[in-house]
Amino acid sequence: MKLYGLIGYPLSHSFSKKFFTEKFQKEHITDSSYDLFPIEDIKNLPSLLKENPNLNGLNVTVPHKINVLKYLDWIEHDAKQVGAVNCIRIFAESPVMAAFTGEVGVIGHNFRLEGYNTDVYGFETSLKPLLQNWHGEALILGDGGAAKAVKYVIEKLGMDYQIVTRKPQPNSILFTDLTPRIIENYKLIINTTPVGMYPDVEECPLLPYEAITDEHLLYDLIYNPEETLFLKNGAKNGATIKNGLEMLILQAEKSWEIWNSK
After folding, report:
1. Is 256 part of a structural domain of the chain?
2. How many other C-beta atoms can be found within 10 angstroms of the C-beta atom of residue 6?
3. Cβ 71 vs Cβ 113: under 8 Å
4. pLDDT tens-digit profile of 45-98?
5. To which H or E segment does residue 11 belong?
6. What span, in angstroms and rounded, lies between the C-alpha atoms of 146 and 82?
7. Is 160 contained in some domain?
8. Catalytic residues
9. In whole angstroms, how far apart are CA 20 and each of 82, 128, 234, 245?
10. Of all helices (H) and strands (E), which one includes residue 126?
11. CATH code at 158?
């Protein structure tokens, strides 16, 4: 039985387990299963792999997307540029082959770990069909781990962006600095913060929403609830809105493709 799973901490609510369990049932994939591995310290990854020799792939969520990098034998280009990994491909590597190539797994076992960032694919693929000529600049709310893939995609698409944070930091402005004029100038607004996520559905990022127009595109990485207060406030003024569910589905399918590539 091939085993796949998710590492992170905590893992009380997992989109990935539900998605893959339903996928296996729907597509009659009987030789695979998906499980949750809540590891608080990334130092426990080697022992997890040793205890589960049938692991073929892992998804990675907070807080390990960055600190897992040092455990990988190879990192794909997009993941390198982003500086974060959310998908690991695991496959056996014989000692003979490892000796021949001169590569030995960095955690000292006879398997190879390859790191990818499928958030890049998921976000870019779900965003691009919505972009219009006037979406030349983006306002990115938050600058945590979730913002890394977003910034990379925006740069890849040749767009400028401005980061907005709660606390002062280099190259960002504060939420309290936002004015209607700034909102008018940035027609694409992306929320990468957890503000508004269930159960805190009555919360939203502090913006002058009255400045939003029907030329605005509001994208929220949150998918629960389906329509956050951030998105509702945008829709009231005619903005196009998008939540993070499609991005999650796309990145999960990309992970499956990577795990099963030759």
Report:
1. no
2. 21
3. yes
4. 999 999 999 999 999 998 999 999 999 999 999 999 999 999 999 988 644 444
5. none
6. 10
7. yes
8. 65
9. 25, 25, 32, 14
10. helix 118-127
11. 3.40.50.720
